[in-house]
């Protein structure tokens, strides 16, 4: 379990394709020394397992499924990636529940400065869109963020200077792929509504939630 509070940013050394998927190598001098083989690590919001350590770098295996469903499929050497270790018992919970299970890949449509802040806009897949709510939480490349705007399949996020400076947001450009993970609580609500035999596809509207006793 992660919280979406990014503490390190690493650089992709290489992404080698294999018959089974791929091998990702990331360089992160400030983090590598704290890792061990078999540790979990979130890389751009995707939970991976460390399989090899070498100096300031560490390596992780990627399955074919992971490559197909994440931005890793387009990743190249030199890409800056957000890194987060799993939350430990007693750690401060600063963001929201982030599992490291990517739901889909979005596309940056805008990154615009506004005073000292920035506005980031990302178009999300239809399968993800139904879980987006104004003022709700969403993880983009593993960063816990709050939805400030929502229109026509595009989520707008207000980015503060700290987030811009200390994550990969400052390296993003229009058209870039972004890993998207929805708030797990929204998925549980939808599943519970389905289990209660709501007629037709589950639709998380205010009226539907009231009818189900929420």
Topology (elements, then pairings):
Blueprint: E1 8-17, E2 21-27, H1 29-32, E3 40-43, E4 46-54, E5 57-63, H2 64-69, E6 80-84, E7 104-114, E8 117-123, H3 126-129, E9 137-140, E10 143-151, E11 154-159, H4 161-166, E12 177-182, H5 184-195, H6 206-211
Antiparallel strand pairs: 1-2, 1-6, 2-5, 3-4, 3-6, 4-5, 7-8, 7-12, 8-11, 9-10, 9-12, 10-11
Using brief descriptors, characterize the structure shown.
about 210 residues, Elongation Factor Tu (Ef-tu), domain 3, 2 domains, 6-stranded antiparallel beta barrel, 6-stranded antiparallel β-barrel, 6 helices, 12 strands, globular
Structure, described:
The protein has 214 residues and is an alpha+beta fold. It has two domains: 8-84, Elongation Factor Tu (Ef-tu), domain 3; 104-187, Beta Barrel (Elongation Factor Tu (Ef-tu), domain 3). The protein has six helices and twelve strands. Strand 7 (104-114) and strand 8 form a beta hairpin. It is globular. It starts with 7 loop residues before the first strand and ends with a helix.
Number of domains: 2
Low-confidence stretches: none
- Major β-sheet profile: 6 strands, antiparallel, barrel
Specify the overall morphology.
globular
> Regarding CATH, which class of the largest domain?
Mainly Beta
* Strand order within the widest beta sheet: 1-2-5-4-3-6
CATH arch. level architecture of the largest domain: Beta Barrel
Provide the β-strand percentage band: 35-45%
Distance between the termini: 26 Å
Task: Report the average pLDDT across residues.
Answer: 90
Structural class estimated from helices and strands: alpha+beta
Number of strands: 12
- Computed over alpha carbons, the radius of gyration is 18 Å
Number of helices: 6
